[in-house]
Amino acid sequence: MPRSATLDQDEGLRTAYRAHGPELYGLAVRTLGDRGLAEEAVQETFLRAWHAADRFDPALGSLRTWLFAIARNVVIDIGRARAVRPRLADAAVVEDRPDEEEDPYERALLAWEVEEALRRLGDAHREVLVETYYRCRPYAEVAAALGVPEGTVKSRVYYALRALRNALEEMGFDGP
Fold first, then answer.
1. What is the pLDDT of residues 112-152, one digit of tens each?
2. Which of 36, 63, 80, 100 has the most CB atoms lying inside 10 A of its own CB?
3. Which domain holds residue 31?
4. Is residue 30 a part of any domain in this protein?
């Protein structure tokens, strides 16, 4: 492919990202419930679109429709991948909005258990969990702050969640 064709395609991708990126991100956040995963989904959507640009046919539908179809598949793929990976126990995440029926002592005990389990993790694992789950920072931002590749952050989160689950089980945590 000639260099000028690549540059034209790249500029078209930038234009498409500016036009549809925020809307695709909103869809991914609503569907996945995680800002970091939503960013990953949008990036993967545009990467797949870039690789398949020669298959886009404006006669069949708009660019927006095509991108949303790709995004839908990406979100499904991420959801499936997430389903097979261990996640932080739902009860271990203290929500921002307190439930009126929830006992404040139970919340305090739960917070103590999670804090104690986090202390049992190594520094690198604890740091990525605090940054990604509690401070809701995207993987890319955490990676830049730590000076490591984004894939390293994702790997650390994966293993940190496993270690956190094990620590909670060792402590006798009997969450739902």
1. 788 888 888 999 999 998 888 888 889 999 999 999 999 99
2. 36
3. 3-84
4. yes
- The model's pTM is 0.46
92 vs 110: CA distance, rounded Å? 7
Q: CB neighbours (10 Å) of residue 130?
A: 15
The full length of the chain comes to 176
Question: Which of these three, 25, 51, 84, is where a domain ends?
Answer: 84
In angstroms, rounded to a whole number, what is the distance separating the alpha carbons of residues 58 and 167? 53
Are the beta carbons of 49 and 16 closer than 8 angstroms? yes
Structure tokens at 42: 């949008």
Q: Give counts: helices (H), strands (E), the chain.
A: 7, 0
Percent of the chain with pLDDT over 70: 78
Query: Is 175 within a domain?
Result: no
CA distance 160 to 129: 7
CB atoms within 10 A of CB 60: 9
> Please, is 98 exposed, middle or buried when counting C-beta atoms within 10 Å of its C-beta (0-12, 13-18, 19+)?
exposed
Q: Which letter does DSSP use for residue 93 in this model?
A: S
Task: Give the whole-angstrom CA distance, residue 140 versus residue 151.
Answer: 9
C-alpha span between 66 and 6 (Å, rounded):
20
